[in-house]
Design a protein that fits this description.
mainly beta, elongated, 15 strands
Length: about 240
């Protein structure tokens, strides 16, 4: 039960999930402080309205936030939507509805989302490797042969995929896949370092790879994390309907 994990008065840190494309870095990192005021049900809470100095922060209804709870047994994280705001007993309240399961807190970029996404990959050319090692500007060479594979889980820090092509652990590879962004498919071309490559016992000739993104742009990483959050919310909503 929710009340077994969090308690009245527990501190909460809130961070807006949807970020404007033109937001400044300071705006992107804005964190609001709140506390648990009441637990109404397994997915609905009343929390105190954040304040800065003596000024109330009127967070908008229908906006979604990333919440981190400071519970007695550790940190817990979930995503929630503000459904109402009001005053009760002279306390300004936000009523929030959880849109994801409450879980032990871990850094956002390392939350792994199980999936089945098509991907194309290849080893990097010598010129590409040299430019990356020297941290020089480079353009990935187009038109080179690509190997097809399937991503089985993805995070903001890396991915795991299956392929009949085995890549050497420690090597840098090119990965290309599509995610849905704002209702449209968008191609992501990233460089990853192979952490492990193991042949599947039940499928000889197929290799499981674990890859960590290399020198990824912060905006690209945030888009991937946002995709994961959105897919998780869809899955939770579908489970509720069923």
């Amino acid at each position: 039960m929710l009340s077994n994990i969090i308690s009245l008065g527990d501190k909460i840190e809130m961070q807006e999930m949807e970020r404007s494309i033109v937001a400044t870095p300071d705006q992107q990192k804005k964190v609001y402080n709140s506390t648990v005021y009441d637990i109404l049900s397994e997915d609905t809470l009343e929390i105190t309205m954040p304040m800065e100095q003596t000024k109330l922060i009127l967070l908008p209804v229908d906006q979604e936030y990333d919440l981190v709870f400071y519970g007695a047994t550790g940190l817990y994280q979930c995503f929630a939507r503000i459904v109402d705001r009001y005053r009760t007993n002279n306390v300004y309240i936000l009523r929030v509805e959880l849109t994801s399961n409450l879980r032990k807190y871990q850094r956002r970029e390392y939350y792994r989302f199980a999936c089945a996404l098509e991907m194309c990959s290849r080893n990097l050319e010598e010129e590409e490797l040299q430019a990356i090692e020297e941290k020089a500007p480079y353009i990935l060479q187009p038109g080179l042969p690509l190997r097809r594979s399937v991503i089985v889980d993805i995070s903001g820090g890396g991915l795991r995929f299956m392929s009949v092509q085995r890549y050497e652990p420690g090597s840098l590879i090119y990965c290309s896949y599509y995610l849905v962004k704002d209702g449209q498919r968008k191609q992501y071309e990233v460089i990853g370092r192979v952490l492990a490559a193991n042949e599947l016992q039940n499928r000889p000739g197929t290799f499981e790879h674990r890859v960590q993104y290399h020198d990824m742009d912060t905006n690209v990483r945030e888009e991937i994390i946002r995709f994961i959050f959105e897919e998780e919310r869809k899955s939770r909503k579908k489970d509720r309907l069923n």
